[in-house]
Fold:
Amino acid sequence: MGNASLHCPSCGADAQESSRFCPACGATLVRTPDTDEYVGKTIAYKYRVEALIGEGGMGKVFRARQLSLDKVVVLKVLRHTLLSDERTVARFQREAKAASRLNHPNSISVLDFGQAEDGALYIAMEYVAGQDLHQILSREWPLNEGRVVRIVSQVLSALSDAHGAGVIHRDLKPENIMVEPRRNEPDFVKVLDFGIAKITDSTDDGPALTRAGFVCGTPEYMSPEQARGSQLDHRSDLYAVGVILYQLMTGLLPFESDSAVGFATKHLTEEPPPPTRRRPDARISPAMERLILRALSKNPADRPASAEAFKAELQAVDKERRRNEAAPRRAAANSSAVLAPLPRKSAAGPQQGDVRDATVPGWGNEVTMEATVRALPGVLEPLPANADAMDAAREHTDSLVHTQPGAGGNGGVAFFFKSLTILLVLAAAGFFAYYFFVGGGGGPKDLPYALPNNAPVPAGANHTAVGASPDVPLYDRAIVSGARNVERALELTREGDKALQRADVGMAASKYREAFGRSGDPELALKLGEMYWHRPNPDKEEARGWWNRHLREQPASKARALIEQRLGGTVAQPSSP
Structure:
């Protein structure tokens, strides 16, 4: 035996002689010898002990090697001084029996149970090369909600299997939950330590392992019924899961006390404060908070009915959270949709090899303008083509760029976009001056381009709804799901974009229509409406039909206000085809 030193029972760190708490994780330190009598020895001619990795009131835990298979295992050895205690020996044996009933990937596997040469009892279990949840909490908090759901769902899976086998854990806490990374799972869970587990269908005639009114377990995680020494069922474990969830989300326990009696009293008499009140800075979804508080109900009947039901609710919470987080992204994607840039051919047509196109002012071509328009908070309206309307246009576009009080630098951003808008107005004036004066007069009437007017859907892409008339406009047709071809629609959309860059607007519109017939993409409907609106002789009814389809699919579209302004009122939305 060497000199006494201090080792953290939670993370195993060595500390200074005078330390009372682990500098790594804050756990209370205990004095243990530098070496142990079993280290280096072989137990039961099967296991060579390599290191002491933990110690508790009942015994010691070693890392050992199973000689026959050259496999690392964990040995839990009961203290010699407790071998004469019938109740403790029975409890140790029950741990082996309870764990041996379990056959679940998230429960620790018991490999062997026996007696060493010196009479000491041991349990051999699988070795988990990870860290316990207490260590993760101490070192890595805050944990994101998705990760918490992933870890606790596995704990509940293990409990569901245990409860189905008639085993109640009764001492669930972060220290008894090991987490290790595996190839396909960053946080793979193993639930440990069924040392005080209760086997509900036991018919043993041995001594009672807990006296009437005797409380066992860890006070911080005890259910109210466990704290008062009442009869327990599986819902007591679910209360402990609620405490663990509370702790993982906030970094704090639901109750604070400096004594075991204080914790037990609070579990019995006080309602836990909502997690967001204890830790306002923590990111906790409302659904997660509601589930945690339900799990911490004083009445077991108010908690989730089973571990499997708890897991289902937890995963539903995660699904709702992901849906809510995705909503702003979808809204941002919708708001960033750019109405199609509309190049106008010159009377002589585009020059060979010259792909630069004269576009309707304010929209620009896809390469140079789209990124700028996406950066604006709203949808830019096409700028006027005459100098008299420039001031009004400037006022309108200025109002689209808002500065937020208290947000540093937004004023500079607003100034940049206002300046850019003015430049676009000047460019618009120059553009029309070129066509009216340099180009020899005329105007849009001299710049015709052909767009299909409700042309039949191309062969192989006629996805008309069952019973729909062939002359029903494409924008009012339902796209049969079984006939959709999204991949081909993307190809057609890219071809349309390229045609638009070549100033071949008619070809672009045909490609977009065919793509819409294969996917029903509302963004294509938005583009097509814009194209029909910006014809030299605008086809307002066709534009209205396409914009109706877009708004029917995306009611919250950021383009709605602009579309309604163009059409002079609220856009009618016919019933779905």
Observations:
- The mean pLDDT is 74.
